[in-house]
Protein: Ester cyclase
Amino acid sequence: MDATPEEIRTLVRRLEDIMNSRELDLLDDVVAEDFVRHCEATPDFKVRSREEFKEFLRQNTVAFPDNVQTFHQIIVEGNLAGFWVTYEGTQTGQFGPLPPSGRRARFDFGGYLRVENSKLAEIWLTWDNMTILGQLGFLPASP
Structure:
């Protein structure tokens, strides 16, 4: 039986809570073992399993230890959940090739999740890297 829209919303809210609480072992209950992440903003960063997703979140927390992701909108259609999220955090650790800036970033991103067998199976994300890099001070100031 397919998950209901309310069950899908609950899965997405649990994902939000797990990411913000850093209790990544709880992802085993909501994320499929063969979870896949797609992101046009970070095409070279591959996530092809739940364990790789956990590692991605760990690395994100090293770069932005105080990060919080707030899901504002969750819209369910069939087995898909679209979302709009605000990310906030201070970059005190290495962020890919970028050294710690000590600056705070706040930006919105959107995407959608696919649910299969009552677990989150796949995610597509997009955001504006220029906004983030500018807030962290890695772009030249505008004239």
Residues 5 and 76 are 6 Å apart (CA to CA).
